[in-house]
Design a protein that fits this description.
Structural class: alpha/beta
Number of helices: 8
CATH topology: Purple Acid Phosphatase, chain A, domain 2
Strand content: 5-15%
Oligomer: single chain
Shape: globular
Distance between the termini: 31 Å
Mean pLDDT: 96
Length: about 270
């Protein structure tokens, strides 16, 4: 039995199949952890979503920003963007079943026995594990409840930019969602820059990667994350394990075996 964490697939189903063949994945024996952004921009989003859903308990999924965007569009709270490749899901006969399943997935997965935490993008520097779990649960409860269409109407936006315990309502849920699914750079006080998408060499003045903030409260955690293709899946610090190899942009689809840290990849160009 082995557990593999896999970076952003973004609808590149054929590359996922190649990666699973390389690691000799057996759904009766092995587990797959998916770091979110299962879909969108790539050509095979519907096949990807169906396949991962059908893995059942062999798969652990945390939601990414593209996964949430699909749910927002499906709920009528948002419109498709020109670059989206979600039409096949939205017109599929099992669309509602797929979206219902996706809404039940997590923002954070923690496995003390393996010693890893899985998120899509990152954590606010002010959050320890207990706070991060609490915040994830707040959003997950809304996603899984009957009020999820209203959540999606309020989800988009870059404000508030800094965590405060007394933030309430939709602003609180928006900030939490942005941290788990969109964060890259922030300043020493945890103020987010949600505009810059480039690599570390182009960090905005006064800002740094979220995982480089001095004395962040989650630095003791071994964190697996995707989202940041410009990092090219290269480790950038202690206890930090980036998994997005930019597959949909012609890079690589990455996997990491958690029991021993060995990495695997397939080219996507």
């Amino acid at each position: 039995m082995a557990t593999y964490a896999i970076g952003d697939i973004q609808g590149c189903f054929s590359r996922l199949q190649a990666l699973l063949a390389q690691i000799k994945f057996d759904s009766d024996r092995d587990k797959l952890w998916f770091a979110g952004d299962l879909i969108n921009r790539g050509p095979e989003s519907l096949q990807t979503l169906r396949f991962i859903k059908n893995l059942g308990p062999a798969a652990i999924v945390v939601l990414g920003n593209h996964d949430l965007h699909l749910l927002a569009v499906a709920s009528g709270a948002a419109a498709l963007k020109p670059q989206d490749t979600l039409e096949e899901i939205l017109t599929a006969c099992d669309r509602d079943e797929l979206c219902q399943w996706l809404r039940q997935q997590k923002l954070l997965h923690d496995d003390p026995s393996l010693g890893y935490v899985l998120v899509h993008a990152g954590l606010a520097p002010q959050w320890d594990l207990a706070k991060a779990k609490q915040c994830a649960s707040e959003v997950e409860s809304v996603l899984q409840g009957n009020d999820y269409p209203r959540f999606f109407k309020h989800m988009y936006g870059n404000q508030p930019e800094q965590w405060q315990e007394n933030i309430v309502g939709w602003e609180r849920l928006r900030f939490i969602t942005n941290c788990f699914t969109r964060i890259r750079f922030c300043d020493k006080d945890g103020r987010l820059d949600l505009v810059t998408k480039e690599g570390l060499a182009k960090s905005p003045s006064g800002y740094m990667p979220w995982f480089a903030v001095p004395a962040r409260k989650n630095q003791n955690l071994r964190i697996l994350f995707g989202h940041w293709a410009a990092l090219q899946g290269e480790a950038r610090g202690v206890n930090i394990f980036p998994l997005d190899g930019g597959c949909v942009w012609g890079g690589r689809l990455l996997a990491m075996r958690l029991e021993d840290g060995e990495r695997f990849q397939v080219a996507c160009g």
